[in-house]
Structures are given as C-alpha cells and as structure tokens.
Amino acid sequence: MSSVFPEDSVGLVEPRIAHFAEPLALACGRELADYQLIYETYGTLNAAHSNAVLICHALSGHHHAAGYHSPEDRKPGWWDSCIGPGKPIDTNRFFVVALNNLGGCNGSTGPASLNPATGKPYGADFPVVTVEDWVNSQARLADRLGIEQWAAVVGGSLGGMQALQWTMSYPERVRHCLCIASAPRLSAENIAFNEVARQSILTDPDFHGGHFYEHDVLPRRGLRLARMVGHITYLSDDAMGAKFGRELKTDRLNYDFHSVEFQVESYLRYQGDEFSTRFDANTYLLMTKALDYFDPAAAHGGDLARALAVAKADFCLMSFTTDWRFSPARSRELVDALLAARKNVSYVEIDAPQGHDSFLLPVPRYQQVFSSYMNRIAI
C-alpha cells in the first residue's frame, strides 16, 4: 500500500460492476429485466468464504465506504473511520463488500440510467424499490461473489433496516446482524419529515415530473431544501449549539430575508448546495419511500417478534443518546422483540452529543463497542 495513505487505510480501491440479466421481481409488482450493481471490496476472502461482511448504506450513501480512488484523493469513503486494518471492521480479518443500492445515483441502475424500453433515462418511470428488493438484489451479488453466508451484515440508519431484513429474508445466510442507529419502522414524525423533503423536490419547477434530464436542468432548489431539512434532523440541538450557537457570519444584522447572517444558516446552505450538485432528485424520492415502507411487523399483525422468529443470526444493536431521528427507544423496541423471539442480542446505548450522525463518526466509545463485538465473530 502506498505510503501516501494512512497506515490504517485500505488504500487504493477500484469500483467493480456486476451485471444481472435475470429479471428481478419487485414488491411494487413490476420487475427490472436487466440491471447492474456497483460495489467495492476490501480485504481478502478466505478459503472457506466464511469471513465476508456486507455493508448496507443509508439514504445518501453509496459503494465507496472506505479507502481512496486515487493517490490525489484526500477524501476517503464514507465509513472509513470504521473499515480498515485494525478498525472495528478489520480488513486484516474480514472481506468487506459495499455496494450502491438499486435506484441509486452512483453507478448502480437507477432513475438516471437508460430505460431499454425507451432509450431515454428512466426518470420518474423507474420502479419504486423497497428494502426487501434491495436485499434480494444483494443476495444475487453474494451469489456472484461465491458468498453463501455472511459473517455479518452491518448498517446504520436505513442500512440497519437492510441488515435486519437480511435476517428475515435469508436467515441461513447471516451469522451476525449489526443494526446501528436504526428502527423497526419509521415513526409518523419521521414519515412527515420525509414528505416535506419530497414535496420540496416535487414542487420544484425544474423537476418536470421526474423527467428533468430531458430538459437539461436539475431541480436544485428542491434538493437544497430537502437536504437542509434532513440535515437538521441528523444533528442534535447540543451539537448544533456547540458548533454554531448564535454566532453571526456578518459583523452586523441586515434586517432582511436574503442575507446569510447566522453561521448555522451558512452551514445549511452550503450542505444544500453541495448535495444538489451530486445527488439525483429521483433517487432521493426512492430512498425516502423505501424508508417509509419498511415495516416487517405489518405482515404479522403488527407483531415484530413474530416477524423476527425466522431469524437465526445473533444481533448487536447500538443507539446514541442524542439521536432523536432514530431514538434509543426505537432500538429498545427492537431489542424487546428479539428477546421475545428468543434471539441472542447485545445492546448498548452510547452517550454521544452528535445526534443521528454519530454512527458515521469516530466516537471513541462507539468504536470500542463496535470493535469488541466484531472481534467476537468467528471466521
């Protein structure tokens, strides 16, 4: 590994493409006849193929979870703090697979991909996908890689929902499930936040009913607002207070509605502007709907324990005290259901001031617990 990278980095990584010609039936009643998944791998698959770990990403995540794409690249993958030599997901022990889900905008088949039926981008015609659909497509990728069983499936937030779904859809193929800062279903408040974000996109004049690609425009205003709303919910009040307080960006108040006067305003506008240039609006709609629809207990009369009865994995759940988007109470609800279903479950509530984003950050106590559990996994 080149010395230009930190010693605990996986170093240079190269995305790969897996193409699937077999139709994939979707929960919405439609199917994808042909699709591709982009993914990265870190570490080495052992001879028994028993050390594979799947990383499931959250709403705006993707396949680039660790390492660097070039020697000049100064920004590592989104979960680089947790994946690498000696890190919680230790690539000296594990073979790690990270992918971009169907409907994404980072290389897997999604709304910006060409629809073979029309020769134009799918746009709004791309089918609605669910967490269960993603897990089914991930299972096909596992087959392609020769992985019959994951040592662990790991994810935070929406990624945690996928990890949970794996234990129900393919119980024999998961030995350990790590569900971090997640929930067994969204609360009404969470669905409401997602709807506000979607409406900001849907009502943007440049959205054109989802077919903005053909008009050579981007619904940037809608995406900016969606990201700003979302970002507020990912942080805690304490974190925002410590980072920004009521600090002014200017040396005086302007008494208008257009100036950026407070530091927190500047931060949110920057986040919105940056996001609107790199993320697809249709993908944002799809991801939030997948969040809203996830509710494995619904098919069992609302009984979560019954839904989880088929699982054979051991479970590790982690939550964060200041996470109000996916509060510790939601993780405890899942713990109670797992215990009622007589599953092996470990749970820890970590005191961290950063809110929901804590699962992405190198919080010392979090990483200690994470490492401790992963080190217990036999390979």
TrEMBL record:
E.C. number(s) listed in UniProt: 2.3.1.46
Keyword field: Acyltransferase, Amino-acid biosynthesis, Cytoplasm, Methionine biosynthesis, Transferase
Name of the top EC class for this enzyme: transferase
Catalytic activity entry: L-homoserine + succinyl-CoA = O-succinyl-L-homoserine + CoA
Molecular function, one GO term: homoserine O-succinyltransferase activity
UniProt protein name: Homoserine O-succinyltransferase
Keyword Transferase: yes
Listed pathway(s): Amino-acid biosynthesis; L-methionine biosynthesis via de novo pathway; O-succinyl-L-homoserine from L-homoserine: step 1/1
